[in-house]
Hints:
Helices cover 72% and strands 0% of the residues. It is mainly α.
Amino acid sequence: MLTGRKEEIDYEVEAALAFHDDDAKATIATLLADHHHLRLQLALAESALSRGLVRGWRPSFDRD
């Protein structure tokens, strides 16, 4: 991982924790809720995309 990206992620982690008053469980719960919401949005987008529009590309639910 590049140093600049690591610093950016560290900052985002600190910001998320600060938003939840340093409550790690609340932070994780919010991130999991966001994760589930985004997976649902991805599933909806996948079902709405035309094969011709994206030339056979399909969204991926997993990281490569």
